[in-house]
Amino acid sequence: MRRSALAAIAAIGSASLFLAGCSKADDNKNENGNTKSAGANAATKGIVNVSDKKGGTVTYEMADVPDSFDPGNTYYAYMYNLSRLWARPLMTFKPGAGQEGNTLVPDLAAGKGVPSDGGKTWTYKLRSGLKYEDGSPITSKDVKYAVERSNFARDVLSLGPNYFQQFLAGGDKYKGPYKDKSDKGLSSIQTPDDTTIVFHLKQAFQEFDYLVAAPQTAPVPKAKDTGVDYVKHIVSSGSYKFQSYDDGKQAVLVRNENWDAKTDPLRKQLPDKIVVNLKVNPEKIDQDVMAGDAIDLAGTGVQASTQADVLTDPAKKANTDNTYGGRLVYMAINTKVKPFDKVECRKAVQYAIDKVSVQTAEGGPIRGDVASTVLPPDIPGYSKSDVYATSGSKGDAAKAKDLLKACGKSSISTNISARSDRPQEIDAATAIINSLKKVGINASLKQYPSGKYFTDYAGVPKFTEKQNIGLIMMQWGADWPSGYGFLQQILNGKAISQSGNTNLSQYNNKDVNELLGKAIGTQDTNERNTLYTQIDKKTMDDAVLVPLTYFKVLLGRPQSYTNLVSTAAFSGQYDYLNIGVASK
Asked: Which residues are in the Solute-binding protein family domain (predicted)?
């Protein structure tokens, strides 16, 4: 749930992390000695408060709990971002503003992948001298094991995507390391020596470097793995390690003394300590962020109740960043819940919704532009289109009623799910309920916590069908900056899973599945993007999801922290890799 064009480079030096013209923490004082603001949207253009100063504590706060701190068992953009502090994937994204943040660079690997066999085989060499927090060496076998546990033990670790399972040769037959008692593992991942790992795919995958940037390739020592309980004692390969972990409450990270800067041109290891506080009141998060005392971990931005105060106060507004995040706010229509198995009923929903009322409920244009396609404008393959256009995007009740009639219905009773700890999502769902009611579609709101939204509720097909949840609120960002990285996990029938499911419409269209497969094997970028446009159009014709807004986030920027930069790689969030604490 993450990232626009590949700009891979072999490695970057620490000097290139900081852009020319960015504000420096030491110089960023006014005549009274207080920190001056770099100005509104400064972190969307460069790195704010550039500093190499070590020491202090960086605090993150979140209203709910993450799906998991286990790098092999997470699927939220903010955890992909944060987990790099303790878990180094083969590749990652360069800390940089906006689109520069989409630049793919080697992390655990010494260089980008070397393709062969037309893109069906990918070989990576690890950097030398890599160590875990206990001083033991990191090997290619640990990377192989990490991929096996995260993708092939779905009954144990179900929260992350399953791309490797879908694409590795023999992936449909391998039962995972917890059931496989041999040391051989999946034969299509080979480790000829301790620093080489080779992936053999069943089809060409021209964007494989992006895939290995997922935290699922961060190494895990097999002897230390305890399955779902590994989250309690994660073995760090990054610049920080866990000092304590209190499930659902707090995690505290401290310096990993066995991390070696010589093996890592990306990380700075600046703060002494990193504290992650969970279940914090959303309004308190806003207060702490604007006071300079915390970072909003989830990166969803200031609350609607805080927004007006921030935007009308010039001093507060100067410490905000408003940016696109490569995300779509939408409502999935569950094709397995009657009567939404009929396309006419789905089209009735499309025409019924007043999207401007939804946009207003989310906080207005500063929170996103009204959407009409699956792909957002900042993802390759986007083409302007509006299949269900209505006057002013305010809905068309007459067309909706006609389509209901064509579906054989005069009214529908259903449920709509939303995340209980996301007030704007609740408000948007309420606006949708009001629109639908006007045409005879009666939807009742069901609220579930975001930390369990996919594991226990909206992402469990049997649950949604049993609870008559025909409509599901959702927000999605690209797993990597391409049409495939955005579309695969929400539209491919092969991505449907019984828990942790993100294809919430349970859409399984043969043509779309084939187009996705064709696209990822196509070497020419323009040809690939044309296929993504076709997939978008086919999906909208089938009316399986309602695009609501192209997401924008209004982040509060804490002045007391350094190296703050809003990155497209992680949905517009600040890049969490090198944030430090400024001099007080």
From this structure: 103-495
